[in-house]
Amino acid sequence: MAVIFQKPKSLSDVTQHYCPGCTHGIIHRLIAEVIDDMDIEGETVGISPVGCSVLAYNYFNFDMIQAPHGRAPAVATGVKRARPDLFTFTYQGDGDLAAIGTAEMVHAASRGENITIIFVNNTIYGMTGGQMAPTTLSGQVTQTTPFGRDIKTAGYPIRVCEMLATLEGTAFARRVSVDTPQNVREAKKAIAKAFELQKNEAGFSIVEILSTCPTNWGLNPLNSLKRIREEVIPYYPLGVYKDKTKEGESS
Amino acid sequence: MKGNEAVAEAAIRAGCKCFFGYPITPQNELPAYFAKKLQASGGVFLQAESEIAAINMVLGAASAGVRSMTSSSSPGISLKAEGISYIAGSDLPCVIVNVQRGGPGLGSIQPSQADYLQATKAMGHGDFHVIVYAPCSVQEMVDTVFKAFEIADLYRMPVMILADGLLGQMMEPVSFPDFTLSEPTKKWAADGHGGKRKKNIINSLFLQPDDLERTIRERFARYDEIKARETEAELYMTEDADIVLVAYGATARVVKSAVNLAREQGIKAGLVRPVTLWPFPEKELNEGAQNARALLCCEMSMGQMVDDVKLAINCSKPVTFYGRTGGSIPSPTEILEEIKRIGGVV
Lengths: 251, 346
Ligand SMILES: Cc1ncc(C[n+]2csc(CCOP(=O)(O)OP(=O)(O)O)c2C)c(N)n1
Ligand code: SF4
Ligand SMILES: [Mg+2]
Hints:
heterodimer, A: alpha/beta, Rossmann fold, 7-stranded mixed sheet, about 40% helix, B: alpha/beta, 2 domains, 5-stranded mixed sheet, globular, binds thiamine diphosphate
């Protein structure tokens, strides 16, 4: 009988700790599938962040480095410069990437560092119990914005892809979502494209993935997906924000 | 050759393949030298966006099993503290140079030894140490760089060369010995498993207290080995010394002159110069201070090493301090006066 569905080789056979309905798990799977499709497991070094996905180093079957909070793009830079033949990506949450790690993110992009950032935007600090993130939406209630994020005092949510797209060094920036099967397929395509770009030494790529945090959003898994569609995507529109490849230039 | 440049040249000869830095006086000649020379020898020079990024680039390159280095001066070293803690917690080898300047804050750009406590006691959060070498000449800086890379790989830990603005800027003749590299194969590195081994994980997180305690105890067992094997000090005219001075780095050179001046005047002075600051040369200090009536600790700080000296001799003899801070260098005559002063007291 033909096998039509199985665990990707690049995903370890261990139980993940993510909450029910959290889409971190789907994103892990997509990355593993792409690495399998490209057959690059043996040359891959992944960088896990500080955040809910810190234990990603246990979940992938390739070499992993656990980086200090926000520093993953610098760590990936070190790996890639030391060993350009290796394939390396960072996996980072919105707090990790767009608050404490802003400098590392911007300068890795600006240098055109030949690495890929998988940016998991769930508009909240998941791991520490649901505090405001730089991506938290206006009015969103979190532990540290108990009356809803007030733009007057807390400033505006950051749109990372749009910001990085302005940098010459950014070769590819695309925002996707994993809220529907159709969008999951698109997300996989985006990851595959970013990884291919790195293989072709095209420079810096980032795939931003809108993700759920049912636990800290105080919503059930289905309503969390609904929130992505109704509140998150309107502020963070899906799409390609930069594509320096021929495909991108011709479109 | 200038101290800073000599360090860079020695590092290239010692097989350093990656340098990541950020400009700060008085160490700028060091990255500048790498920028000019490292690429030609097949290495990578990168000016990072901050000291934080630089140390994390070192973390990445060291994780991939490649000899890497960063350098900075006091304010920049403070920024590296987080990364150094992670590097130590992940058992990664690397070399860090601190060409110290006056502090706290922006302080001054003049020589200083006010980062002693930071380097030897608390180079970041958590239970860990870095090996700290304190060379006192350009030649010794060169020799130390080579040793630092070897030791870092041997014990899989960060090694710091604690220099100062004087050593970094000073010009001295220097020769580069033929280094025979003994870089071990790094089976633990995150450099792609190639389908040939299980995956490697570079990590400092251990959520179970017992697991974290075990890794720390293992590391401290290695520290005991390092204390036994790698501790170094120079003893100068200590056999019959009444007064033993304790000084390291550039200050030790000034103190040596003061000891010579004292001897000319019939005062039996000697010098113990810690070469490793961590581990601190306790045994060597006791040996050097055997016949001394008093000890005088000299530093370009407010006396950060004094407690280590007192502890090493178990407070069995009076230990006094003379130092300058803020970027001033004590002169041999100043120190001679101090020797005479305590010579009269004890
Ligand atoms: C230097 C430092 N500051 C703060 C923390 C605490 N901390 C851990 S995870 C986290 C936020 C993570 O949020 P995000 O990056 O959005 O990831 P998520 O958990 O939402 O996936 C913070 C602030 C830390 N570990 N280190
Ligand atoms: S806290 Fe949120 S982001 Fe973290 S695992 Fe749970 S649902 Fe996912
Ligand atoms: Mg988050």
